[in-house]
Amino acid sequence: MIKKALVTMLLSLIFSTTYSQKLDVTKLDSLFKALDEKNMFMGSIAVSKNGNLIYSKSIGKADIATNKSLSLKTKYRIGSTTKMFTSALVLKAIEKNRITLNQTIDKFFPTIENSEKITIENLLKHRSGIADFLGADGFANGYTEAKSEEEMIDIISKLKSDFSPNSKAVYSNSNYYLLSIILEKIYAKSYQELLDEQIIKPLKLRNTYFGGKINLQNNECYSYYFSDKWGKEAEGNTSVPLGAGGIVSNPSDLTIFIEKLFKGEIITLKSLKEMTQIQDKFGMGIFELPFYGKKGFVHRGKIDEFRTVLCFFPKEKLAIAITSNGMVYEPKKIIKAILSNYFDKPFKTTFNNIVLKTEELDDYLGEYSSPDYPSKIAITKNNTTLSIQSIGQSSFSVEPTEKDQFENIWEGIQLQFKPNQNQLIYEEGGKKFTLSKQTQNHKS
């Protein structure tokens, strides 16, 4: 049985337009009005086509204590979306022959395990094996206190490697912190200075900079969590993530940045091709975002209770940026709504969180295959989370959307189970495959 939480009322908005590849602004306005009225999202959005802003909106509060509203000029911490900027700075340094992709990092960090084997490219693609510093004991209670370079390198050096360098890819903030320090060392300048000189000033990004303590007088905002009502989240200190998550920006600046990136105005088109070459689902500070056969690129961010999504579809020259300082309704659902709207695909929005008991997942578990699909698919669970894995590939989780239906927006995957028929309708990149269950249920 499916339990519905948060809001019992179901509101369905069908996003469809008469003309493909145009935004139905009225439908988007309706979505944001509903989110605002239901207190489910606070933040800003910008949609740009061919370098022209075609939609923007802000809802919610920058500071609940003073009732200060968010505006299109409000600036947010963008978290790990910072990595896209850092990757561009590193690739620019490579273009200038300051460093190379295949050089190892032992010259910079001799105390880090396997540093003599780990390359700059490994860091960029999360293939270093260096564990994420956020998992260290020193950050068990968050990272509200400033950390020096020496302190951070000491923390990272004490972490055991998760795997042999270049054997696979696992996301780790440590990689991009170290890349930031490498940039500072080879230029003898701070990350903030390099960001200003090489990206912000040339692109005239007036609302983007390396962040410090949140300042409402500078059109910044606090972040909030929701538990019956909005509660103010503690501020992380940006010295900790540095180039892994310390930038402040807003959606309009972010769309400019990613448009210029893909036009070859920040790094060369040759470097961009390397940046967007996907290996084991990782590019260099960027990920692929498939949508009904369309190919986009994306990076998400989370810091404190801020959330960011920045994506770009090169063929359509479509840029979308979402920044949030408080959410119950997740930004990924908004991205899906916008893309469905723009590409003329049906989309039903529900303001219900679907929560399944672990035993309700049992009917879905097992291996599925089809002569029409190149590999077997294993469906497993971890407590109340369902996971999918193509044999030989890494697994990822999927979320319930309706009875017997699940999806992962970032992977471009949709699943529809037919338990009574032992079948799975598997949709990937706009193509559907019918797979049959081959084994008995696997319970974990």
UniProtKB/TrEMBL annotation:
Q: Which SUPFAM superfamilies match?
A: beta-lactamase/transpeptidase-like
Q: What is this protein called?
A: Beta-lactamase family protein
What the entry lists under InterPro entries is as follows: AmpC-like (IPR050491), Beta-lactam-related (IPR001466), Beta-lactam/transpept-like (IPR012338), Beta-lactam_class-A_AS (IPR023650)
Q: Which UniProt keywords apply?
A: Signal
Point out the signal peptide segment: 1-20
Does the UniProt entry include the keyword Signal? Answer: yes
Which species is the source of this protein? Answer: Flavobacterium gawalongense
Q: Which Pfam families match?
A: Beta-lactamase
